[in-house]
Amino acid sequence: MTKVDDTGPSYPDLSGFDLPADKLAQIKAMQEAEKRSLMARKAELEECECREGMFPNPIASRRSLFAGAAAAVAAGALPVIARADAPPGAIEFDVPDDSTKVQGRLTNDDGGYGSRSQFEDEVRWRFPTATKESSWTMTPLAAGMGIITPSGLHFERHHGGIPTINPANHTLTVHGMCKTPKKYTMADLKRFPSESRVHFIECSGNGLTEFLKPNLKTVQGTHGLTSTSEWTGVPLSTILAEVGVEPGAAWILAEGADAAVMTRSVPIDKAWSDAMLVYGQNGEAIRPEQGYPLRLLLPGFEGNTHIKWLRRLEISDKPFMTREETSKYTDVVKDGKARQFTFMMEAKSVVTFPSGEMKLPGPGFYEITGIAWSGRGRIKDVEVTTDGGKTWHYASMQGPILPIAHTRFRFPWMWDGNPALIASRCIDETGYMQPTIAQINEVRGVNGSAKYGSIYHLNGIMAWAVAADGTVTNAAHQV
Ligand code: CO
């Protein structure tokens, strides 16, 4: 292993911002997590021939070294041997010099459930909290294609670890202000007519490191707490009709079966409109870390409210004032008052290519691309600037353009080799336009200042600076 430069990338010192110790520690931990992942990548690059080019891939290059070994056995009928050191989700196989001269792997020898290529190594990385039970991971958005996040790369947020639940024993109790309280098994729930919808889920803490100044290096670090899946399940309204909600009911408590017994209060209007009880994700059972066997889906609401491992719904005439809606997930604004129940994830967009830590090999044509989303509905337009906001141009949007889902945008760009400042901004179908970070701080107060300022709901415009040598860096606040 090549020795790594211990110092690594440098991050801004935020001690001058009068941050409370816990917020400063949180941001420092985020910096550390990203730094570790970047330095591991750097070490891999240093020991391979693949440093140049737009998408240097040490995994692909290093693994081609096995070709010689494979060729030695190519003439015979020896089975290829799976190696242990493949990236997560992959299996390591020998690589033949010429794949047309040797039989390939045996059909269904994977046991009937496939794995990704050994040359693909994108993974979530974890925020280094004190314990691994209460932590979160970020989706690698820079490598994303289209609008769907692979289930295994969907960001996570856990407060008491990932429970192991046998669906045969799992039930959902619905009670409180209703005529007929009921307890449903998973089999019961699957008998109701189902629906499938594509929606993003975004943690309201997505971007919390970026309120004050450009901070994390990569789009995975600055924006990786959002992911989009196709979700399948039962409209919650179906179940509410079944139990007979009583007049005066206004809120529902949703409770998870994890060790944290995560609870949030949900307005009953949301429950009646588009809320779902989901058991499917991207065409198969929902992943354990996403709430297996049952999750509450509240399209457009902050991620914390989409209660995973859902076991209980209690109907009431008032909110329940749980920990997660009093001491956490509230927003202290400029005048010292706190906003509570700030559910909506407003319109937001980000350029994912080019983005931080990439290097453009030279002047010429590039396709700028990224994603835009809004908790209020469809994205109507996305604009892109390459001159730091002096001029904006409409990007083309790739279909399908679905409500409350990531929407892929593209913009052709001829780079002349001069320093450039790239950013995107979007407008949703309600007419809401993505603001600048400065505009957000002006209204809410600066995040993390010792007095006031939210760490949640940063949906401001994100910028990336392209230097003359092609290196791309975080330029938040510059547009
Ligand atoms: Co909120």
Describe the structure.
There is one protein chain. By secondary structure, the chain is of the alpha+beta class. Among the domains are: 156-338, Sulfite Oxidase, Chain A, domain 2 (Alpha-Beta Complex); 348-474, Immunoglobulin-like, CATH 2.60.40.650. The chain has helices spanning 21-46, 58-63, 67-74, 186-191, 219-223, 236-243, 268-273, 437-444, and strands spanning 125-126, 135-138, 156-158, 171-176, 182-185, 195-202, 226-235, 251-256, 263-267, 276-281, 284-285, 295-297, 310-316, 331-332, 338-339, 348-353, 364-373, 379-385, 393-394, 396-397, 407-415, 420-428, 463-466, 472-474. The two termini are 40 Å apart. Residues 1-5 and 66-83 have low confidence and may be disordered. The chain binds cobalt (II) ion (CO). Cobalt (II) ion (CO) binds at residues 204, 302, 329, 342, 456-457.
What's the helix and strand layout?
Blueprint lengths: L20 H26 L11 H6 L3 H8 L50 E2 L8 E4 L17 E3 L12 E6 L5 E4 H6 L3 E8 L16 H5 L2 E10 H8 L7 E6 L6 E5 H6 L2 E6 L2 E2 L9 E3 L12 E7 L14 E2 L5 E2 L8 E6 L10 E10 L5 E7 L7 E2 L1 E2 L9 E9 L4 E9 L8 H8 L18 E4 L5 E3 L5
Parallel strand pairs: 4-13
Antiparallel strand pairs: 1-2, 2-3, 4-5, 6-7, 7-10, 8-9, 8-13, 10-11, 10-12, 14-15, 16-17, 17-21, 18-19, 18-22, 20-21, 22-23, 23-24
Bound molecules: cobalt (II) ion (CO).
The site of cobalt (II) ion has 6 residues, from loops.
